[in-house]
Design goal:
Layout: H1 3-14, E1 17-19, H2 20-26, H3 32-43, E2 48-54, E3 61-67
Length: about 70
């Protein structure tokens, strides 16, 4: 399964908004940059949104990705 598919399923299952660091941690990715790249690609679809906000896991204000 691709990282994009894993992230898509995970975001839909858990809801909320997540930063790249937390997505990388939850999906067991080696780098947060990889999570950011995939999250940016997902946000260009109609099913995901990416903006500055509060991460549901760590509580930091950063770019977060949300499933719609």
């Amino acid at each position: 399964m691709t990282i994009a598919k894993r992230m898509s399923l995970w975001l839909r299952e858990f809801g909320g908004a997540y930063c790249d660091n937390c997505l990388a941690k939850e999906l067991k990715l080696s780098r947060s940059q990889e999570a950011g790249r995939v999250a940016r690609a997902l946000s260009k679809t109609a099913n995901f949104y990416r903006e500055r906000g509060i991460c549901s896991l760590c509580g930091a204000e950063k770019k977060v990705t949300t499933a719609l």
